[in-house]
Amino acid sequence: MLRLTVYISLAITAGVASFFITDATLVNMTAGLSVGLLLPVVDEVARNWGNLRHLWYSLRYRNKSIRVSTSYLFKIYVDGKYLLIRGSRYRSHFQPVGGVHKVSPQGKATLSALGATDDDLVPLDPASYGDLRVRVPGKRIFQFFQWFDSRQGREDSPWREFQEELIAADILPPGTFPHIMHNYLGREVDPIQYSPWAESLEILVADIYELVPNQEQEDSLRQLAATGHPDIVWVSAQQIKRRGAVPGQPQTVDISTHSRRIL
C-alpha cells in the first residue's frame, strides 16, 4: 500500500507540474514521467486489490455491522476423485475436510479492541468455541483484514481439522498420518453481500490447502476409497459442480455449495 501511494503521488505531481512548466523539453519529460508511472500504478493496484476493496468497505459501510466468517478447506484428490466428508452440523451434506479458524486469547483481545463481537448464528459449544465468526464494525473492516493477514493470534495451520475429522474419527489410521505435507493453494474472499440467513452484510473467507500425501498415505487413501465409509464420499469435479447430481441417475449425495472452492 505504501508503494502504491508513492507511485500515485509521483504520477499526480508530474502530471500537475507539466501544466505549469513552459519549457517544452521539461513539459515532455514530466508528461512522460507521469505516463510512465501509470504502469507501476496499475501493477500495484492489481497487487493490492484486496486491501483497496476492504478500505472501500470501511468507508462505504462504516456505520454497518458486518458478519465475517473465515475458514480453511482441504483439497484431497486421488485417482480423479475428491474426498468429501459428512458435515457435523448438517448431516445430510458432504463437504471438504476443514473448518473455521480458531483464535487465541491474544487474537480475542485484538478483536475486542476492534469492536468485534461474537457471532450468534451458530450456537456456542465446545466445538465452536474460539471460532473466527464475528460481527465487525464496518469502519474496522480494513483493520480486521490487516490483522487477519498478519496471522497473529489466530490459527495458521490446517492440521487440527484434518486430525479431528479424519484421524480422531478413525477414518484414517494415525500410524500412517502422524503428520502431513500440504500446499497452500490460495485464498478466496467473497465480495460483501447481504445474507438473509445472517440478516446482515457478510464476507466469507476461505484458505484452500491441497494434501500432498507420501506413498504410504496415498495407498491408505486408495484403500479408504475401495472399502468405503458412511461418512466419506469420493466424487468427481462434475458432481461437485452439480452439488451431487449425476445426469440420468437418482441423486444420492447432497454436496455443499462451498465445496466448489477446492476445484
List low-pLDDT spans: 14-18
Total beta-strand segments: 12
User: Helix share of residues?
Assistant: 25-40%
Beta-sheet strand percentage?
A: 15-25%
Rg, please?
24 Å
Number of helices: 9
Order of helices and strands: HHHHEEEEEHEEHHEEEHEHE
Based on CA inertia axes, which overall geometry fits?
Answer: globular
Distance between the termini: 31 Å
Largest sheet: 7 strands, mixed
- On the 0 to 100 scale, the average pLDDT is 85
Number of domains: 2
Label the structural class: alpha+beta
Structure, explained:
With 263 residues, the chain is an alpha+beta fold. It has two domains: 2-47; 53-262. Helices cover 38% and strands 23% of the residues. The protein is built from nine helices and twelve strands. The strands form two sheets. Strands 1, 5, 6, 7, 8, 9 and 10 form a seven-stranded mixed beta sheet that branches. Strands 2, 3, 4, 11 and 12 form a five-stranded mixed beta sheet that branches. Helix 1 runs antiparallel to helix 2. The chain is globular. It starts with a helix and ends in an 8-residue tail after the last strand.
Keywords:
263 residues; seven-stranded mixed sheet; five-stranded mixed sheet; globular
In short:
This protein is α+β, with helices and mostly antiparallel strands and 263 residues long. It has helices at residues 2-20, 24-36, 38-47, 49-60, 105-113, 141-150, 159-167, 215-227, 237-241, and strands at residues 65-75, 77-78, 81-86, 93-95, 98-100, 117-118, 133-137, 182-189, 193-195, 200-211, 232-235, 254-255.
